[in-house]
Write a structure and sequence with these properties.
Largest sheet of chain A: none
Structural class of chain B: alpha+beta
Radius of gyration of chain B: 25 Å
Distance between the termini of chain A: 63 Å
Shape of chain B: elongated
Helix content of chain B: 10-25%
Oligomer: heterodimer
Shape of chain A: globular
Helix content of chain A: over 70%
Order of helices and strands of chain A: HHHHHHHHHHHHHHHHHHHHHHHHH
Distance between the termini of chain B: 37 Å
Structural class of chain A: mainly alpha
């Protein structure tokens, strides 16, 4: 009897092993395809930057483009502009975001509910909408504020200039606030109160405790947010192109765009891109170092403490003023300006001031009759939905391959999957344009879809691996033991458990991609329209009121999407 | 003159009373506050430190009023000049060991030479001499605990409050540390209030113990008295291993008395006579089951023999728990491994339980009548 059992086990063992390795094959294959899709544009950018030939021809490698970029006397100006712009907005946004997080989490400031909606704000207000609203407000001649000052206060000289460095920092800095807020809010909320209490016991008064204990403990999260915001500044497209270029302030991203769309010089564009990529990678490495440094502070994370709200006495009127001004300037005013402008016949200051007597729906009619906007709208909706589903699914498959199969060398996927993060979206789409040139995919929605896929894949991958690592491996192994194949494990165990975080990632990628400009702008063409890019073009040619109307239409779509996500799927919403 | 006086403290969280009219006075030595989790002991400590404001009552430290709700006085925690060791140590992760310990001294504007000297000697005292430049995350749990202690004693407070400071250490380290901790506090010579839920820890560390439950002080006495003369059933069962059964006083004989126990087939036991309690009154009988003897033979020269049935044994290594059915009640008796009088394999056998009267105590707490129950 005992002998029989032994024989049976010996017979079955190889079959178990076989099933296990078969379980590796498909996910591994899928991950390799995904990985190649990502790595192709990256390699192409590097390769193209080393050749001077026209697209399609090959004349050998040369450093000429780099020499040209480095010999460009404007290179230092560009470097300087990029740094000032990214650093200025990162500092403005992160400091303000951190301050608001502290006010909301720890003080008895009245009206702080105004700021608690902050995570929703970047979802509802796409970057280009902010630029349009602030250009309407700050433009030197037509701008609302300059005209108001002149008309009602008699102040001449038009102090505001939307096309200056300070206006660029102002607009993008406001866009950096939510990230600072979201990084620091959990720090202040999950703060171990005994760290402050032990300072009181040691004789430290509340103000001293705030400066010596509370704020220093938030430094790691603050630095993380600051560096990420800096990186976002380096990669950002809308503000440099819409506000910087008209004012003659050039940064790397706007140079890449000009080299491609104005001069049509792909080699030069790729060389600028390569410099930008090197800077981005340096910043990313610095970011990784900072998060390592913050491990020393590891003791602050952990248990859910009940934090004490501090009564800050009469200071609460000051903090209320901060909260209220942010709400007004950061959220309400741009919103209102955009909506008002979408309802007036055309934009200039006099017409604007006549609102609401001159309210019309003409802009909406015009926009909705415009074929390139309508098809663009349709394309952006369908493509975003598809991309969100495909990206998230492939992200999970790759994470599954890395953490749940026995294939060797899967750690490389982690590197490949995060690679697009080092590449500004505009640079990625530049690479794809060059890849597809001369193939049937050139100037098709497929190319556009692929660009969005590559750009958003890192988010899907990071989300999936973060969640998969947190699922106990025993749950999978129990399924293997009970006779499941990889598809059973994947669809019946892994995917259902991942559902909540999958929903969040799906929603995030959908929202990000439906309003994307910087990936799509080089991949659109007549016949391949994308809604946000159409709006961008409207604005570039001065059809401000139409652009505003189109923006409001997108706003409504986003509000519907947010409501559906919140009410129907109970998705946790953030940035 | 007393270092600490608490009068009529009341504090509630939502519906539950965390402190229900707590009063006590304490002068020198180490006082433990012992009780199950949620009994209000940590709340009491936090009220004394000024980290919580009670709803009623007053707190005096060194005869100076610190908190008085009726007189509207509340000294903030940073002006109370006491020490506090938190359960999770609360070391500031962004400061080195030196900066952690020196924090309070720097606020007192002492010279850096003075600070240096005092921090050094505090760290030396807790055995962390060369650890000044380390950060809390680079220390083990035991070392962190000692830094927290050094941070408190460096301020030379009049009173040090310790909130379960050993509960995050593993069992073996905890046993070593509690002896060290007592020595250290004695050496420094400050008064200490020590909160714990571990009876052994409380007994080893402190000179006197307060047992608390449901926001009330149940007993305030020396460890010896609490163990041998528990004030009520809760104290008896919370302190060490004891079986508590209902009984009735049937006769008094000089210093002793006779109790009848219905659950043990109306067997009678000779006990030391309690202070109160009249013949015929109901009472509780506490049997400290670690102090009774077992024998499979019937010995006639001993008092207080109970006849029982051996149900099962729980082998614990050096000790063995025997489950014995006496009358209609199952009691658990712990025997030493070397106890020769019983056969450990015995099951379902007759066994005799010999209880010396020193292993017994009588509680004659008034039973709540029905009218009192409805009042509650």
């Amino acid at each position: 009897m005992a002998k029989n059992v032994a024989v049976e086990a010996a017979v079955h063992f190889p079959r178990v092993r076989l099933a296990y390795s078969q379980g590796t094959l498909f996910p591994l294959f899928a991950s390799i395809i995904t990985g190649s899709l990502i790595i192709a544009p990256v390699l192409v950018v590097l390769f193209r930057s080393l050749t001077t030939a026209r697209l399609g021809a090959f004349v050998g490698l040369t450093g000429e483009n780099y020499m040209r970029v480095l010999a460009d006397p404007k290179i230092f100006e560009m470097l300087w502009n990029s740094t000032i712009y990214a650093a200025g907005s990162a500092i403005l946004g992160t400091v303000l975001g951190a301050l608001l997080a502290w006010i909301v989490a720890r003080t008895n400031t009245p009206g702080k509910a105004l700021v608690e909606l902050m995570p929703l704000y970047p979802i509802l207000m796409p970057p280009i909408m902010k630029n349009i609203a602030w250009i309407l407000l700050l433009a030197p001649n037509a701008g609302i504020l300059n005209n108001l000052l002149l008309e009602y206060f008699g102040i001449e000289g038009r102090p505001f200039n939307a096309f200056s460095m300070s206006a660029m920092i102002w607009v993008f800095g406001l866009a950096c606030v939510p990230l600072g807020y979201l990084f620091l809010l959990p720090v202040f909320l999950s703060f171990d109160p005994s760290l402050e209490e032990s300072a009181y016991i040691a004789g430290s008064r509340p103000m001293n405790t705030l400066w010596r204990i509370t704020f220093p403990l938030a430094i790691p999260a603050f630095l993380s947010a600051l560096i990420l915001n800096f990186l976002r500044g380096l990669r950002s497209f809308e503000t440099p192109v819409l506000q910087g270029s008209p004012g003659g302030i050039h940064v790397f991203v706007s140079r890449v765009y000009d080299a491609m769309s104005v001069e049509y010089n792909p080699a030069l564009a790729t060389a600028y891109s390569a410099v930008l990529v090197v800077i981005s990678i340096l910043v990313l490495l610095f970011y990784i170092r900072t998060t390592r440094f913050s491990e020393r502070y590891a003791t602050i994370t952990g248990k859910g403490y009940r934090v004490k709200v501090i009564d800050i006495g009469k200071w609460k009127y000051v903090t209320f003023l901060v909260v209220f001004s942010y709400f007004l300037i950061g959220i309400a005013i741009p919103f209102v300006v955009l909506i008002v402008v979408s309802f007036i016949p055309y934009y200039d200051f006099e017409t604007f001031m006549k609102f609401p007597t001159n309210m019309v729906l003409a802009n909406y009619y015009r926009v909705m009759r415009h074929p390139s906007f309508v098809t663009g709208l349709y394309n952006s909706l369908t493509l975003s939905l598809t991309i969100a589903v495909v990206t998230v699914l492939m992200g999970i498959v790759m994470a599954f391959t890395m953490y749940r199969t026995r294939a060797y060398g899967t750690k490389i996927f982690e590197f490949i999957g995060s690679l697009p993060l080092a590449f500004p979206p505009l640079v990625l789409s530049l690479g794809l344009v060059i890849v597809f040139l001369g193939t049937p995919l050139y100037n098709t929605l497929w190319a556009l879809g692929l660009g969005l896929f590559v750009a958003y894949f890192p988010y899907a991958l990071r989300n999936a691996s973060g969640s998969i690592v947190n699922i106990h491996k025993e749950l999978d192994e129990a399924a293997w033991v009970h006779g499941a194949r990889w598809r059973h494990v994947f669809f019946k165990v892994t995917l259902p458990i991942l559902k909540p975080s999958v929903a969040g990632a799906l929603f995030y990628i959908f929202i990000e991609s439906i309003r994307n400009i910087d990936v799509a702008v080089l991949l659109t063409a007549p016949g391949v329209e994308y809604g946000p890019v159409t709006l961008f073009e409207y604005f570039r040619v001065g059809q401000w009121a139409e652009a505003a109307a189109g923006g409001v239409i997108y706003l409504i779509i986003l509000i519907v999407a947010v409501s559906v996500a919140k009410l129907a799927f109970n998705v946790k919403l953030s940035l | 003159m007393s270092i600490l006086r608490v009068e009529g403290l009341v504090k509630s969280y939502r519906d539950t009373l965390a402190l229900d009219d707590v009063s006590f006075e304490f002068d020198k030595g180490i006082l433990s506050i012992l009780g199950p989790s949620g009994c209000g002991k940590t709340t009491l400590l936090r009220c004394i430190a000024g980290l919580e404001v009670p709803e009623q009552g007053a707190i005096y430290i060194a005869d100076k009023l610190q908190t008085s709700i009726s007189r509207g006085i509340f000294v903030p925690p940073y002006s109370r000049a006491i020490g506090f060791v938190f359960q999770n140590y609360a070391l500031w992760p962004h400061m080195s060991v030196f900066s952690n310990v020196a924090f309070g001294l720097k606020l007192q504007k002492l010279t850096s030479a003075e600070i240096q000297k005092r921090v050094q000697s505090a760290l030396e005292l807790v055995g962390l001499k060369n650890y000044e430049t380390r950060y809390p995350s680079q220390l083990s749990g035991g070392q962190q605990q000692r830094v927290a202690l050094a941070r408190s004693i460096v301020m030379e407070p009049r009173l040090i409050l310790l909130d379960e400071p050993l509960s995050n250490l593993d069992a073996k380290l905890r046993e070593e540390t509690r002896v060290e901790l007592r020595k250290l506090i004695k050496k420094v010579g400050i008064s200490a209030l020590y909160v714990t839920h571990d009876q052994e820890e409380a007994f080893v560390i402190s000179d006197t113990v307060i047992v608390m439950d449901k926001g009330k002080i149940l007993q305030y006495a020396s460890p010896d008295e609490i163990y041998n003369k528990p004030a009520n059933q809760f104290v008896a069962s919370f302190i060490g291993r004891a079986a508590v059964v209902d009984g009735r006083l049937v006769r008094a004989e000089g210093q002793d008395c006779l109790v009848e126990i219905p659950d043990f087939n109306n067997a009678t036991l000779v006990c030391q006579k309690p202070k109160g309690g009249a013949v015929g009154e109901a009472c509780k009988v506490v049997i400290r089951t670690a102090e009774v003897e077992l024998d499979s033979r019937k010995l006639n020269h001993k008092d207080n023999v109970l006849e029982g049935l051996m149900l099962s044994h729980d082998y614990r290594g050096g000790l063995t728990d025997h489950r014995i059915l006496v009358g209609s009640k199952e009691i658990v008796v712990t025997s030493h491994k070397l106890c020769p009088m019983i056969n450990i394999e015995d099951r379902g056998e007759r066994i005799y339980v010999y209880i010396d009267k020193s292993a017994l105590s009588i509680i004659t707490e008034p039973q709540p009548s029905l009218s009192q129950l409805t009042e509650l």
